[in-house]
Each structure stands twice: as structure tokens, then as C-alpha cells.
Amino acid sequence: MSISLPKNAAFVAALLLTASSTSSAFCPSTSIKSSTSSSSQSPTVLFQKSSRPPPSKGFGSGGGGSSQSTTRSSSSSNSKRRSTASSSSSSTTSIKTDKFPYAGKIRPFPQTPQRRVTDETIIKPDYAISGVPRHATSNLLPWIIPIKSALEISKMRTSGRLAREILDLAGRAVAPGVTTDEIDALVHEEIIKRRAYPSPLNYHSFPKSCCTSVNEVICHGIPDKRPLQDGDIINLDITVYFEGYHGDCSEMFVVGDSNALDEPGRQLLQATYDCWISACRMVQPGRHYKEIGGVIEDYVTPRGFSSVKQFCGHGIGSIFHTNPNILHYRNNEPNGQMAAGHTFTIEPMICEGSSKALTWPDDWTATTTDGKRSAQFEHTLLITEDGVEALTGKLETSPLQFWERDSQVHQGIWLGTSASAKQKQNEINRVQHGLI
Q1: How many helices (DSSP H) and strands (DSSP E) are in the chain?
Q2: Sheet-wide strand order for 306-307
Q3: Which of 42, 116, 311, 372 is most buried by a 10 A CB count?
Q4: Which stretches does DSSP call E strand in 174-315?
């Protein structure tokens, strides 16, 4: 497989060897302690779980001289609950909530047993049974980025479209009184119907087939029996594994009529969407991945919002998480140079208040430490010779949300900057949504 190197790779490599320090391409989403050093630690790749110690500091200034921490109550240190795809439990899991210092109003509700993929003819990822990915690329230097072949890109287009179909179906199910577990059941069954595997299921023992993050939950919310309420905001994070390749996307939804959402909530969703599209639009061959974070931070900070530093986007393909790491804040990390054939996600998590994360005892759910709301959008992107395309872009049947209609960055659905992507998005916006 071909790789792409930045022009200054040899120089950076020499400095790294001299310093005996490298940026970790994979970081555990366990606690990251605050540091008094001027360099910040590398963030956690979304969905990456590990028993390894926290990552070493990345080369360069990282967070611009400010270390951020992921907070966890000491009572959760022995609370890790493991389940596998072969689990046969039939009882509802009860969650004790009396001692943990939750930051906001969301609490864990009972969970139903883990759903399984029993069809032997469906191609499954290597972690489906064991919960442990065997084919990782954590030994790669952070600027070593695989370039996909034409066949691989074709397969990723298929998995990306499937992920979009499932996300749209799940979004239509969002309504007051519906539980996130019911949404997970729908996601699971619809993915299986399409002869695919729900990528989150049993990935480092994640217990469900999608992530459902409500209000102050930043990411990795576990579907449970809590009914959604009017005015809630929810991020649905969907990833499918089809014929050996992953497609990953997420989107925000308002529970009930959009008028049920208060004005600060609307501003949060609009700013999150606009900074995300701004970052996606700047992607093109020759630019550096470290530039993405500055675009995001420069957009949200003047508007009073903050960008989470503990979690980041990632390369994707036959492996769920690989190079490059996509940091959603201004940084100087040597995460490589963009080139045609790269596939990766941009998925900023933007907060009303503090961007620091509190990890629940389930070792997955991450909320804001102050209980204020967070929002996120995500695409799997492909760099082309003439720009970028969203492999998980919206379809003719996808709904147009208010943040797309009212966006000052790009009105209507966004599918990319390549000639073919712009032609398709313009047609959908004109025919389906009446936009010129």
C-alpha cells in the first residue's frame, strides 16, 4: 500500500528521534491527567479504548500551551463493564447512579442485553467476537497515511452511503418518548438487513450498535431506556462495516418540533455545523492536517463556544481508526499532508461552556464537566485531485435541517468541493430543496 509523506518528514523524524518522543496515533479514552508542562497531551481518537497507559506528549505545542484533562470520579476506577458479541445475558442491566458526581441532568438508564450478529455470511471486523482489534496501525508515525486504491475507494463509497442511509432512518425515529435503545434496535436491524455489520458493536467491548449522545453528552453515549424529551438535542453516530470497509458519520437532531429548542441551543447547533463545514471546505491536496483545527477554533471561539481537545477525528478504511489524527483545535502536530486517496473523518465537538470531559463509570460516556450542552457533526471524507468529497454525504431523500438552510457558510446540503460533488449537491439543493 502506498503512503504519503510531507516534505519535511525527514527533519521532523530526526527531531522526534532526538527527543525520544512521538505522537500517539491511538490514545485510550481513559482519564488523561492535567499536566503542568507547556505541551498538551494528544487527544483520544473517537471510540479508541485500551488498557494501555495514557499517551505520551505529542511533538510540538499540541494544545497551544494549555493542557486539558478528562475527569473521572475515583469511584469509577473498578467499574469497567465488559460485554462481548457472544454475550447471552437476557436481563436488563441496572445502573447505579447515587454516588457518581454527574455534571448535568442526563443520567444512565437501564440497558437491554447486547444485540448480536449471528448471520455467518455477514463479513465482520476482527474485533466482533473478542472485542479487541487485531489489525491496528499504532506503530505508524503520525504522518504516514495510507492512500486508498480505486477498488478501496469504491468499497468506501458503498459503506459511506450505507452509513448515511442508516443515519437518516435513525434520525426519522427521533421523537419525544422514544428511547435511545429503540433507536439502537432500529439501527442494528437495518444494518443487518443490508448485509453489513454495525462497527461500534463490541469495538473494545462497546455494548451497542451506535452512539446516542444527548444534551451535555459530548460523545460515546450508550443507548438505554431513557425516553427522549421535547427540546433535547441528540447526536446519532453511525458506522457500518460492509465488505471489509467502514463508513462513519454523525448528525444532530432536535427532539420534537425544532421550535422546542431554545435560542442558545439553536446557536450552538448552527455554530457547530458552520465550523465543521468551514473545516471540510478547506481540505485539498497539499494542505496540512494540522490546519483543520485552527479553522474550527477560530470560528467557534469568537461566538462564545469551545472545542473539545480530548477526542479527535481519524483516518478510516479497512481499519476503524488509523492515521491521520484530526485535531479540532489550533495545533502544530505533525499529522501529515493531505493527498488524493486519503480517507478520514472531521467531527468537531463544540460546547456551550467548558470543553473538558467527565467520563462516566461505564468508561464510555463523556459529558461536559459543567453540564452544559455539546454538539457534533461528522463525515467520512475522501480527498480527490480537485478537492474533497463527503462519502457519507446526504442523499436526495435526506431531510434539510435548519442549520443547513440558515447557514452563512454554505446554504443547503454540502457534498464536497470536487467538480462532481458540487454538481450533485447543486442539483439536490435546487430540485429537492428549492435552493439556487
Answers
A1: 7, 19
A2: 306-307, 349-351, 374-376
A3: 42
A4: 197-198, 211-214, 217-219, 233-242, 245-254, 306-307, 311-315
Query: C-alpha grid cell for residue 106?
Result: 442526563
Q: What is the mean pLDDT of residues 269-273?
A: 98
Q: What is the H or E stretch that residue 233 is in?
A: strand 233-242
Cα→Cα distances 171→184, 189, 212, 227, 428, Å: 11, 15, 11, 15, 19
pLDDT for the residue 219: 98
Rounded to whole angstroms, how far apart are CA atoms 31 and 347?
21
Over range 179-207, report the average pLDDT: 98
Place of cell 463525515: 379
At position 349, the amino acid (one-letter code) is M
What's phi and psi for 260, nearest 5 deg?
-75, -15
Q: What residues are paired with 374 via a beta bridge?
A: 351
Between helix 150-173 and helix 180-193 the angle, nearest 10°, is 140
Give, in order, the Cα–Cα distances in Å from 66 to each of 34, 36, 116, 184: 9, 9, 42, 37
Residues β-bridged to residue 51: none
Q: Is 51:28 a contact under the CB 8 Å cutoff?
A: yes
Residue with cell 483545535: 329
In whole angstroms, what is the distance from residue 389 CA to residue 419 CA?
A: 9
Cβ–Cβ under 8 Å, residues 163 and 239:
yes
Length of the chain: 436
**8-state DSSP, 260:** G
CA distance 34 to 178: 38
Alpha-carbon gap, residue 336 to 331, rounded angstroms: 13
49: nearest Cα among 314, 307, 364: 364
**Of 263, 347, 351, 353, which Cα lies nearest the Cα of 313?**
347
> In the predicted model, is pLDDT for residue 41 greater than 70?
no
Residue type, 143: W
DSSP 42-88: P-EETT---SSPPPPBPSS-TTTS----EEE-GGGTT------TT--
The grid cell for 169 is: 432512518
46-49, long-range: CB < 8 A, 24+ apart:
46/219, 46/220, 46/311, 46/312, 46/313, 46/314, 46/321, 46/345, 46/347, 47/200, 47/203, 47/204, 47/206, 47/220, 47/320, 47/321, 48/204, 48/321, 49/203, 49/204, 49/205, 49/206, 49/363, 49/364
Q: What single-letter DSSP state applies at residue 362?
A: T
The set of cell numbers assigned to 409 is 457558510
Would the pTM count as exceeding 0.90? no
| Residue 90, all three cell numbers | 437476557
